[in-house]
Structure formats: C-alpha cells, structure tokens
C-alpha cells in the first residue's frame, strides 16, 4: 500500500504550508518597502529618497503602532510611477490606512490586500492606470470604511461579497470601465453614505435593496447603461442630499417621495425615458438647489407643480411634454440663475414677476406656446446672458428695455408674431454674439446703432418686413460670420463698408430690393445664387451675377465712408475693450498660414491697427526715453495714448521662437488672460505683433516693481509693516485666484519681486501672469525657461514638472524678501543648519523699519514668516496651496506669540520634520 508514504507526503506539505505562513507573517517590512521603492521608476525613487535605514517608522508617508509595526502607508500626490506587484501586503498585517491616490501607478490591485483585516481606508483613486478587477473575496476586509478606486481603468463587476463590508461608508468606483449590475447584497451596507458609480458601463436595473441604505446621502449612478424603473424604495432614503441618475435608460415614474427627508439639494435625472408627472412632494422641497429633468417624457400640468425654492440655482425641464402656465413663483426663487423649460407645451403669458429673480443669467423658454407680450420688466434681469424666447406665439413690440441687458450674449426672439421696429437700444447689448429676430413681423429700417455690437457673430433678421437701406455702420461688425437679411424689403446699395466684413462666411440677402455691386469679401464672393437672388439689380465679378458697369463711382464713395468712420471708431475702441479677441481668432483661422509673416492685433476692440500706430507714436518708436524698466522678455515702455490713457507696453525681444508659437493656442491664451480681472493682477489689455515689433499692452502701475521700491532706502522706509503685510496678502490673493478660482489653473512660473508692482496705495499687482507659457509654449522643456534665479523651486532642478507648487515656493521667497527688505539669499539654505535656526527673527527683518511694538503686527510678522517657511519646503507635496495660504493670511488674528517677540528664533518658526533646502 502506498498509504504511509501518502501520509508522509501530506505531513510534509502541511509542514511546508505552516512554515511559509509563519515566515510570511514575519516578512521584513523594511525590506518589503525598499523592494517596492526599487521597483518604481527613477523619479519616484528620488521622491522617496528619504527612505533609507532600517526603521521605516520615521520615513515619509509611513506610520507605525507602538511596537513598530507599520499601520499607515500614505503617499498621495507623490508623483509615483510603477506597480504594486512588489509591495507584499503580507508584511503589513496591522495596516489600517493605505493611500496612494493621485499618483501614476498602474497594474493590478494585489489580491493579498484581502488579508488586511484591520484596514479601514483604501484609496487608489486617480492613478489612471490601475486595471483588472476587484478581488472577489474583498468581503474579508471587514473593517473597511472607505474604498476609493475612482479614476482608473478597472473592469469587471462588483463582487457580491461587497455585502460583507459592513463598516463601509464610502464606495467610490466612478470613472472606470466596470460593468454588470449592482449586486443585491449592496443593501447590507447600512452604514454607506456615499455611493459613486458614475462614468462606467454598469447595466441592469438598480436592486430594490438600495432602499436599505438608510444612511445614504450621495447616490451617483449617472452615465451608465442602467435600465428599468428607479426603485421606489429610494423613497426610504431620508437623508439623501444628492441623487444623479442622468444619462441612463431609466423608465417609469419619478419616485413619489423623493424629497421626503427634506434634505434633497441636487436631483438630476436628465436624458432617461422617465414618464409621468412631476412628483407632488417636489413642490414642498425647499432644500432644492439643482434640478435637472430635461430630455425625458414627463407629462403633466406644471402650473402649480413647483413651489418657492430659496436655494434653487438651476432648473432644467426642457424637452419633455409638460403643459400649463409659468408660475409667478419662479420670480421668488431669488437665487435662480438658470431657468430652462424649452421645448414643452407651456402656454399663457410670461409672468412679469419673473423679473424678481434678479440672479437669472439663462432664461430659455423657447419652443413652447407662450402668448401675450414680452413683459418690459424683463429689462430688470440685468445679468441675463442667454435669453431665448424663440418659437412661441408672442405678440406686440420688442420692449426697448432689452437694451438694459448689457451682459447678453445670445438673444433669440425668432418665430413669434412680434411687430414694430428693432429698438435702437439693442446697440447697448454690446456683448451680443448671436442675435436672431427672424420670422416675425418687424418693420422699419435696421437701426445703425446695431453696429455698436462689436462682437456680433451671427445676425439673422430674415423673414420680416424691414425696409430702408442697410446702414453702412453695420460694415463695422467685423466679427460677423453669418448674416441673413433675406425676405425683407431692404433697398438701395449694399454699403461699401461691407468690404470690411472679413470674417463673413455665410450670407443671405435674397428677396429684397437691393442693387449695385456686391462687397468684395469672401462671404459675398462665394455666395451661391440662392443667397443673392430676387433683388433689384445686384452685380459683381462672380459667375452668378452680371458684371458691374461703373467702377469709378463706387471707389470714390468708398473713400468717403472710411474717412467718416475711422475717427468715430477710434473713440469707441477704448470703451469696448476685449471684444476684439473673438474676432481675432476667427480672422487668424482663415488668414494666417504657417511659416508666414503674421500680424496679430489681439486688442481693444477691433481697431488694433490704429492702436499699434498710436503706441509707436507715443513711444517714439520705442525710444529709450520712454523706457521704464526691463524684464525677462524685453523692455517696458510708458505710453500716453491720444485718449489720455497711460499704458505700459512690454516690447518683446525678437526671437526665432516666435515662429514656433502655435497661433491658435497663443490667441486663446491671450484672450483668457485679457479676460482676467482681479485687483491684484496687472490687467493685460492685449497683444500686438507684426514683422517689426511684438508687444504686450498692460495697465500702468505707478510705483513700479517691489524690488525697485525695496532697494530705495527712502521708499523702503515708507513701506511700513501694514503696507508690507498687505502686499503679501495681495500677492497671495492673486496667486490663489489664478490657481484655484479659474476654470483651469494658470501657473505664473516666474514670481519674483520684479513682477510684483505697486500702485500709489502700495497695493500689489502681479504682472506677467501666464505669459511664461505663452512665450515659451514648450512647457515640458522647462530648462529653456528657468524662472528668475533665486526664486525657483528646488524640484525644478531635477524634474520637468511644473506645478502650482513652484509658484508657492517663489511666493515664500518674495514674502521673506518683503519681511527682510532684501532677497533672503543664503538664509533659506541655512535654515536647516543649527546656526541658521538660532538666528533671531528680530535680527533678520528689515532693519530700516522701527522695531515693532504693537503686538498685533508682531504676531502677523511671525505668522507670515512661519507661513513663508512652509512654502519653502523642499518637497512640493508639503507646501500649502495658495488657497490655504490666502486663508491663513486673511482669517482672523494669528495665534498669540509663544514667547517674547525679541526671543523668537527662526528655528521656532520651522515646522517639525521640515525639509527646507535652497
Ligand atoms: C529587516 O531588514 C533590514 C534591512 O534589510 C535589516 O537591517 C533588519 O535587521 C531586518 N529586520 C529584521 C527584524 O529582520
Ligand atoms: C450581510 O451581512 C451579514 C452579516 O455580516 C451576513 O451574514 C450576510 O450574509 C450578508 N448578506 C449578504 C447578501 O452579503
Ligand atoms: C433589506 O431590508 C429588509 C427589511 O429590513 C430585509 O428583509 C432585507 O433582507 C434587506 N436586504 C438586504 C439585501 O440586506
Ligand atoms: C421601504 O419602502 C417600501 C416601499 O416603498 C416600503 O414598503 C417599506 O416599508 C419601506 N421600508 C422601510 C424600512 O421603511
Ligand atoms: C407641503 O407643506 C404643507 C405645509 O407644510 C402641507 O400642508 C402640505 O401637505 C405639504 N404638501 C405635500 C405635497 O407634501
Ligand atoms: C444664494 O446664493 C448666495 C451666493 O451663492 C449664497 O451665499 C446664499 O447663501 C444663497 N442663498 C440661499 C438662500 O441659498
Ligand atoms: C393646469 O392647472 C391649472 C391650475 O392648477 C388650471 O387652471 C389649468 O386649466 C390647467 N391647465 C390645463 C391645460 O389643464
């Protein structure tokens, strides 16, 4: 028999198993971490360079319990690249907290993690590249509270074992490639408060057990392929604040008691197949801030379906089958910015009470059955940007009060029964891009004031009863791309000024009484016969029209018109800054070819060319007498324009690089910068370039740069502590705004005392924001632009990665410079030495200022210095964000001094474990 041998073998393998188990539990944690570090790419290893020695407990990102066993591994935002394959989790049986979010790690999630019975926090979000699926026995992580795998390329379905994760409060799987349906076992997770599954390929219906998640406050299922009804058990979720079900295939009715808990703020279920009425409980749901139900098949009478929502900002009910009338209640939603009920069957009048909702920026009631007049109260909605009332049955005259809507960009009143004339006040809506009054019964002539709408890109006045001549001023609307004047009763000649409509690509003047030559511009020259037909006698050098006979007549009349127009435009241009940007982008698209000499005038409305000449004149062709400074890219000149305005002109050094500038990117950048308004940022008015000169035009700031002021003893003495601290605050405010409050962050890259300008009140104005990237668009090749020596962050020596944190470092240097009255120089590198740390703050600060007796200011100087030191941390991850800095500087009084001011040393101001390097 072989049984004894078999027995022996069994014994042997059992022994093997037990030894391997015991050695794994004793796996050397130091060795494991170092092995993993070695498996990462070189840059990651340099970020982890403090990982040396045999005690990981004081390494960056590692935490241990009392007996030295690793409990925390926390390296979010560390720029790490590599896999987790070498990180043997069995070496960390006591691991509680694991955070590698926001890195560039990839590969699979190791299965060994399921053995970490103490793990409560697990975050691999936003690594972009983790792939594979969730381990099926994930349920063994019985302590897990937070599981965040969002923002990767994970696939497969949610294992039903997830139902064993009783402690889970936060499950975020959004932005992956997950599929399959939600397991019913999810109902077991009664502690769950966040469930984010959006942006995946989940399908099937949502299990009714979701109604057991009574602690759920956020439910995001949007952008998947879910189908079936929304489970009515959602009614049981009384603490829900945000529900997003948008862009799925949900059917059936909306849950009746969706707002039963009274906490619901956001509900979005747009673009599904939902039918039935608006739930009754929504009327009382005063907590609502955002409601999106557009693109469904909702039916019912909305006259009394909605109440008054003090917090409501955004509501969209478009593209449904709703009927009834608009409630005056909408006017009482005082925070409402967007009201969209387009494409339904709403009838009745537009209630004048709507004008009480004075925050409205978007009002879209198009494609309904509204009747009556447009209430003139609409002129009170002065913040409107979009006003769409087209495709209704509105009557009466167009209220001239629309001229008060100076922020309007899009106005459509088309397809109604409006009568009367076009109010000349429309000319005040100078930001309008799209104006459509077609298909009405509008009479009289086109008011010449329309030409004040510089930015206008599309103008449709077709199918009306307009008469008279086309105003020659309209030829000044140089941004115009689409012009439709067809089916009216316009007569006489097309004004020669129309030759200037260079952007015009689509034109239709058919069915009028026009005669004479067509303008010599692309839009007309390429127009098909149908766009010109049925007029009285148009001619031109194109195939579809007869040739013109008398050319000399036409020329002389054109010369006259230009003489009249030009001076008028010169004045207007300074009133309507900026609008030229858009126009310029358009013009460049068509006119500029690569490797060709370029003219760019991205400025001041549309007559950049005039301004260009004015500036050359004002500076006597950049004569050195007008030079007021020099910077990295060239000299700065002061120019007094004919209008009396003073501007600073930065003339760029000619450089071969100009050829490599990506024009489109360049122009959109300039436009973005031109749009910025912040009291601590020098306003950029525009940019001019041609073969001869290229220059940026800035607001003129009287006192010049902070460096100049600090280096002049008299002026520096003027700059007392209040003023200095205010400059630090201003600089922080500017940086915080550019980093955090813009649609996309803008990094300065060259903050130095040379770029901080002071006005007459010593208020800081940061100059040159964004220009580094414009002028050196090759942003990966950082070495080609090294910032200003003494201000650049240390990591730029070894990485190419430019982040906001580089600006934070430079901010730290400038702040020290303001406090010390001179560039801190070696002080920063000495801070990590005992000598440096023993230095007293009072000896370091600017000696030309009187010793500070007032305690409040002393506290602020100490706090600012301390803050500056955190900004100078050698590891960018540990520097605060500018938002945090700004908040620290502005909220309340800093903490009292730990000891008398005169005894505070620099060492006292450095945080623990601080790694300052020069
Ligand atoms: C773990 O490994 C490190 C480095 O390899 C070594 O110095 C240390 O003594 C080891 N510790 C144990 C407990 O084996
Ligand atoms: C729910 O949790 C309980 C207790 O942990 C467990 O016994 C049960 O099997 C779980 N149910 C599901 C469906 O996961
Ligand atoms: C949901 O709760 C009900 C009643 O409390 C219970 O019968 C059911 O088993 C639960 N479902 C799940 C999946 O936990
Ligand atoms: C959950 O909702 C269902 C259907 O609306 C209801 O019958 C049930 O009583 C609710 N359960 C709880 C625990 O409230
Ligand atoms: C709305 O609230 C009022 C008063 O609080 C109450 O009388 C009414 O029944 C509520 N309506 C609904 C549909 O909940
Ligand atoms: C209205 O909006 C403002 C600004 O967003 C906010 O501060 C305020 O709290 C809002 N009011 C209500 C009642 O929600
Ligand atoms: C809608 O409801 C209002 C009052 O709630 C009523 O006066 C109106 O006739 C209804 N409209 C339709 C079309 O049923």
TrEMBL record:
Listed Gene3D superfamilies: Phosphorylase Kinase, domain 1 (3.30.200.20), Ribonuclease Inhibitor (3.80.10.10), Transferase(Phosphotransferase) domain 1 (1.10.510.10)
Membrane topology: Single-pass type I membrane protein
Record-level Gene Ontology MF annotations: ATP binding; protein serine/threonine kinase activity
E.C. number(s) listed in UniProt: 2.7.11.1
Keywords: ATP-binding, Glycoprotein, Kinase, Leucine-rich repeat, Membrane, Nucleotide-binding, Phosphoprotein, Receptor, Repeat, Serine/threonine-protein kinase, Signal, Transferase, Transmembrane, Transmembrane helix
Signal sequence region: 1-21
Main location (coarse class): membrane
Gene Ontology CC terms, in alphabetical order: membrane
Catalytic activity: L-threonyl-[protein] + ATP = O-phospho-L-threonyl-[protein] + ADP + H(+); L-seryl-[protein] + ATP = O-phospho-L-seryl-[protein] + ADP + H(+)
One Pfam family in the UniProt entry: LRR_14
Domain spans labelled Protein kinase: 622-902
Binding site for ATP: 651
InterPro entries to which the protein is assigned, alphabetical: Kinase-like_dom_sf, Leu-rich_rpt, Leu-rich_rpt_typical-subtyp, LRR_dom_sf, LRR_N_plant-typ, LRR_R13L4/SHOC2-like, Prot_kinase_dom, Protein_kinase_ATP_BS
Name this protein carries in UniProt: non-specific serine/threonine protein kinase
């Amino acid at each position: 028999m072989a049984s004894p041998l078999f027995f022996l073998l069994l014994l042997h393998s059992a022994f093997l198993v037990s030894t391997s188990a015991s050695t794994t539990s004793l796996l050397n944690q130091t060795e494991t971490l170092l092995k993993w570090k070695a498996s990462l790419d070189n840059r990651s290893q340099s970020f982890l360079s403090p990982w040396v020695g045999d005690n990981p407990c004081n390494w960056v990102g590692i935490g241990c319990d009392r007996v030295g066993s690793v409990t925390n591994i926390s390296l979010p935002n560390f720029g790490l690249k590599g896999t987790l394959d070498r990180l043997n989790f069995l070496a960390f049986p006591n691991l509680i907290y694991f955070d590698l979010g926001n890195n560039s790690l990839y590969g699979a999630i190791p299965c060994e993690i399921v053995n970490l019975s103490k793990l409560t926090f697990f975050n691999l979000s936003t690594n972009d590249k983790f792939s594979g699926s969730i381990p099926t026995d994930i349920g063994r992580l019985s302590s897990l509270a937070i599981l965040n795998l969002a923002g990767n390329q994970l696939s497969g379905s949610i294992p039903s074992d997830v139902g064993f994760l009783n402690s889970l409060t936060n499950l975020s799987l959004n932005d992956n490639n997950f599929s399959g349906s939600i397991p019913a076992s999810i109902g077991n997770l009664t502690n769950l408060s966040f469930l984010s599954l959006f942006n995946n390929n989940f399908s099937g219906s949502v299990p009714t057990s979701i109604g057991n998640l009574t602690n759920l406050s956020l439910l995001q299922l949007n952008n998947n392929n879910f189908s079936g009804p929304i489970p009515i058990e959602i009614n049981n979720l009384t603490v829900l604040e945000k529900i997003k079900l948008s862009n799925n295939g949900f059917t059936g009715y909306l849950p009746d008691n969706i707002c039963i808990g009274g906490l619901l703020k956001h509900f979005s279920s747009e673009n599904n197949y939902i039918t039935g009425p608006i739930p009754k409980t929504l009327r009382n749901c005063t907590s609502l801030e955002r409601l999106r139900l557009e693109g469904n098949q909702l039916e019912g009478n909305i006259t009394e379906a909605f109440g008054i929502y003090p917090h409501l900002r955004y509501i969209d009910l478009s593209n449904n089958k709703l009927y009834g009338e608009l409630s005056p209640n909408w006017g009482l939603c005082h925070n409402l910015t967007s009201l969209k009920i387009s494409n339904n069957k709403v009838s009745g009048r537009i209630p004048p009470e709507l004008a009480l909702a004075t925050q409205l920026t978007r009002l879209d009631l198009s494609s309904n059955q509204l009747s009556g007049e447009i209430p003139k109260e609409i002129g009170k909605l002065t913040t409107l940007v979009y006003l769409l009332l087209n495709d209704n049955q509105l009557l009466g005259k167009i209220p001239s009060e629309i001229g008060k809507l100076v922020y309007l960009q899009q106005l459509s009143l088309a397809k109604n029964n409006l009568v009367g004339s076009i109010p000349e006040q429309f000319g005040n809506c100078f930001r309008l891009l799209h104006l459509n009054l077609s298909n009405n019964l509008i009479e009289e002539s086109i008011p010449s004031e329309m030409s004040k709408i510089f930015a206008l890109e599309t103008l449709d006045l077709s199918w009306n009863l307009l008469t008279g001549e086309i105003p020659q001023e309209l030829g000044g609307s140089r941004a115009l791309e689409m012009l439709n004047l067809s089916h009216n009763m316009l007569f006489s000649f097309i004004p020669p000024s129309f030759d200037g409509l260079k952007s015009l690509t689509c034109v239709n003047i058919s069915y009028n009484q026009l005669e004479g030559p067509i303008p010599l511009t692309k839009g007309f020259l390429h127009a098909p016969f149908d766009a010109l037909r049925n007029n009285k006698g148009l001619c031109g050098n194109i195939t579809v029209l007869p040739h013109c006979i008398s050319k000399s007549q036409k020329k002389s009349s054109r010369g006259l018109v230009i003489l009249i127009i030009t001076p008028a435009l010169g004045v207007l241009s300074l009133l309507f800054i900026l609008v030229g940007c858009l126009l310029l982008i358009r013009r460049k698209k068509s006119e500029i070819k690569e490797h060709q000499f370029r003219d760019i005038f991205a400025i001041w409305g549309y007559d950049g060319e005039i301004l260009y000449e004015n500036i050359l004149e004002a500076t006597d062709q950049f004569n050195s007498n007008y030079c007021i400074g020099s910077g990295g890219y060239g000299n700065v000149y002061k120019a007094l324009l004919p209008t009396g305005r003073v501007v600073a002109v930065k003339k760029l050094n000619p450089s071969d690089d100009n050829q490599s500038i990506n024009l489109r990117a360049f122009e959109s950048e300039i436009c973005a910068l031109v749009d910025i308004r912040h009291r601590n940022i020098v306003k950029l008015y525009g940019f001019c370039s041609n073969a001869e000169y290229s220059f940026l035009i800035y607001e003129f700031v009287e006192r010049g740069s902070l460096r100049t002021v600090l280096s002049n003893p008299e002026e520096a003495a003027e700059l007392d502590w209040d003023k200095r601290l205010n400059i630090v605050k201003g600089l922080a405010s500017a940086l915080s705004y550019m980093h955090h409050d813009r649609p996309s962050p803008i990094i300065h890259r060259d903050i130095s005392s040379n770029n901080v300008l002071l006005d007459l009140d010593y208020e800081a104005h940061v100059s040159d924001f964004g220009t580094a990237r414009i002028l050196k668009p090759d942003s990966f090749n950082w070495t080609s632009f090294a910032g200003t020596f003494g201000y650049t962050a240390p990591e730029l020596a070894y990485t190419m990665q430019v982040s906001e944190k580089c600006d934070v470092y430079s901010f730290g240097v400038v702040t020290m410079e303001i406090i010390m009255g001179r560039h801190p120089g070696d002080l920063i590198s000495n801070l990590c030495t005992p000598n440096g740390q023993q230095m007293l703050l009072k000896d370091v600060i600017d000696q030309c200022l009187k010793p500070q007796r007032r305690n409040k200011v002393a506290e602020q100087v100490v706090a600012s210095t301390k803050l500056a030191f955190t900004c100078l941390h050698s590891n960018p991850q540990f520097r605060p964000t500018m938002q945090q800095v700004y908040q620290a500087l502005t909220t309340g009084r800093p903490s009292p001094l730990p000891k008398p001011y005169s005894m505070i040393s620099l060492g006292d101001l450095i945080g623990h474990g601080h790694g300052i390097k020069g």
